[in-house]
Amino acid sequence: MKIGANGIEVNYTVEGDGPWLTMSHSLACNLHMWDEEAKRLSRRFKVLRYDTRGHGGSSAPAGAYTLEMLADDLDALLQALGVQSTHFIGLSMGGMIGQTYALKYPGRFTSLALCDTSSRYPAAAAGVWAERIRTVEAQGMEPVVAPTLERWFTEPFRKARPEVVEKVAAMIRTTPAPGYIGCSHAIPKLDLTARLHEIRCPSVVIVGKDDPGTPVAMAEEIHQALPGSKLVIIPSAAHLSNLEQPEAFNRALSEFLEKTGS
């Protein structure tokens, strides 16, 4: 389904019944990254998944995006659907959007799960993102597919589960170049660590032990700055820990959500 929100069309899906729960995906993925989690969670929650600006079936306008813009997109979507409060699960870029939203729209999240994400990037990271932007501007998405998969999954998993890896490869490959570029301008400007103490809802930080992109040290920094949060480190998982170790990921998520009383 599509709906107008913050000047763009946002593609979304809603499943199940119960308290609202919103899921936000990684850069270069789409709402289908959460297919298995949505099946489980929709037994207890009204699960909203959506494609971030520039991804999947949502509009992909050219130009640099900001994390505040992406948070405003989410707010406009929630308002259009009549959602007053929601649990939120975000992975990688989705977690960055979640932190930005929680700070800009306090009190709207019932709980917050930040997965394989960061609360800030060092200045040195800007060059890496600039190079990715140049590559996609010149050659499209194909050159970033293989190196992204190497960061997102451990080598043993890539060999053992090629069907999962190929599903993600297809998501990366079909991400609109303007959307990837727009979000790649936003991500390296992330700098929220010093403000995380303002977030008051129950929170969990989940990270794959072998995540090279947003490593355990970044998760620990979020955990230390976020009052009352719980940290869960998932062994034998890289960046997309929900896909590489789904049982451990979903167990951590379920235990957290049960403790929120929902």
Structural class: alpha/beta
Can you count the helices?
Answer: 11
In total, the number of strands is: 8
Q: Please tell me the CATH architecture by its name.
A: 3-Layer(aba) Sandwich
* Residues in helix, %: 40-55%
The CATH topology comes to Rossmann fold
N-end to C-end Cα span: 27 Å
What is the CATH top level name? Alpha Beta
Mean pLDDT: 97
Any low-confidence stretches, pLDDT <50, length ≥5?
Answer: none
Give, in spatial order, the strands making up the sheet with the most strands: 1-2-4-3-5-6-7-8
CATH superfamily: Alpha/Beta hydrolase fold, catalytic domain
List keywords for this structure.
alpha/beta, 262 residues, 11 helices
3D architecture notes:
α2 packs across α3, α4 (125-139) runs antiparallel to α8 and α5 (142-152) packs across α7. The protein has 262 residues and is α/β, with parallel strands linked by helices. The chain has a single domain (2-259), classed as Rossmann fold. The protein is built from eleven helices and eight strands. 44% of the residues lie in helices and 18% in strands. The chain has an eight-stranded mixed beta sheet, sandwiched between helices. The radius of gyration is 17 Å and the shape is globular.
Q: In brief, what are we looking at here?
A:
The protein has 262 residues and is an alpha/beta fold. The chain is built from eleven helices and eight strands. It is globular.
Break the fold down into its secondary structure elements and pairings:
Elements: E1 2-5, E2 8-15, E3 20-24, H1 35-41, E4 46-50, H2 67-80, E5 86-91, H3 93-104, E6 109-115, H4 125-139, H5 142-152, H6 155-160, H7 162-174, H8 177-186, E7 203-208, H9 216-225, E8 230-234, H10 241-244, H11 246-259
Helix pairs in contact: 2-3, 4-8, 5-7
